[in-house]
Amino acid sequence: MPHIASLCANSHRLYTMADHKWTGSVKSLKGVILDMCGVLYDSGEGGGVPISGSVEAVKRLKESDLQLRFCTNETQATREKFVAKLQRMGFELSVSEVFSPAPAAVSILKERGLKPHLLVHDDLVPEFDSVDKMNPNCVVIGDAADKFSYKNLNDAFQVLIGMEKPVLFSLGRGRYYKETDGLKLDVGVYMKALETWQLTTCS
Amino acid sequence: MPHIASLCANSHRLYTMADHKWTGSVKSLKGVILDMCGVLYDSGEGGGVPISGSVEAVKRLKESDLQLRFCTNETQATREKFVAKLQRMGFELSVSEVFSPAPAAVSILKERGLKPHLLVHDDLVPEFDSVDKMNPNCVVIGDAADKFSYKNLNDAFQVLIGMEKPVLFSLGRGRYYKETDGLKLDVGVYMKALETWQLTTCS
């Protein structure tokens, strides 16, 4: 009984759905959750380009009686910046319709009374404005890109090793992704690096 | 039948051995292999300081009929630089008596006809002078310290992912160590990071 469809394929399938040529089983759908990068647009220089047909597909889904939400593992920018980029590409969407890792993490941090040491991209920091970061008792890492320096990783490590029960939140588990100038290591490998020191004591 | 003793404890035990007050079982020893950092000296500002008694202990071992060799996992400098530092501290030792990871790696690289992409400390690079590094077909990482940048890790990753059968040599597996300004992540966690992308394809 699939009431919600989560799409992470490509805009061709998306367009077909939006075209209202649905089979009986698809008619039972109440809503659609769309992945974004690689589904709605391809990342690249200047922020990327929409995938052919995707802007129109989103428009048709919005005009339908389906609930529509967007889900992304993007952690290099706030939702506001991210949505503004997609709007410039022609997509109809608003911040409240987009689900991304940082606001979910903020919600958990507040729920548990945790104060994070952040190792994230500069453009993501504003997502954590409402969170107390004095005397941190956990570490949050995102796709920090150039901020993944030896010094910053040591700083995060020193915060973790100073805790009785180290708590590390990773905003993703991806291992690598493609940019216009080649493949880049993603947050998942840095998460693994920061997990590794715990396997034994100093060796 | 221990014919060689490998010591990685501290200079007190070392001094006791050198003092010739050995039990019967210890008398069967033919040689001694000494760890260095944390056994002969403590690392720190200006290169570190000898541990009390260790200079004299090495002197006595040299005067004995025991074979004496030194073994280290040091990968931030060539053996020449490393030995010069120890000599300045007062230790009697020569380059040929010291076994460290980089020369062992060079030996394996030549034996297998491998050409490395290096992600190592600048001061270690001369150890690899005799190795062809054009069109690399493997990656060698050491304790690169500040050279563990986002860019350099991506470069090493791109070399690895471009190979049909990726080959990664790590000059150590240590997870962290202490310096005067705090704990530092060691090469082992970066090794783990570079291993991680292989667990699945792009995620």
TrEMBL record, chains A, B:
Catalytic activity: diphosphate + H2O = 2 phosphate + H(+)
CC annotations in GO: cytosol; nucleus
EC number: 3.6.1.1
GO molecular function, one term: phosphatase activity
Domain of life: Eukaryota
Keyword Cell wall biogenesis/degradation set for record: no
UniProtKB keywords: Cytoplasm, Hydrolase, Magnesium, Metal-binding, Nucleus
Cofactor(s) recorded in Swiss-Prot or TrEMBL: Mg(2+)
Places the protein is found: Cytoplasm; Nucleus
UniProt keyword annotation of Amino-acid biosynthesis present: no
Family to which the UniProt record says this protein belongs: Belongs to the HAD-like hydrolase superfamily.
Its job: Phosphatase that hydrolyzes imidodiphosphate, 3-phosphohistidine and 6-phospholysine. Has broad substrate specificity and can also hydrolyze inorganic diphosphate, but with lower efficiency.
Protein name, as recorded: Phospholysine phosphohistidine inorganic pyrophosphate phosphatase
Organism: Alosa alosa
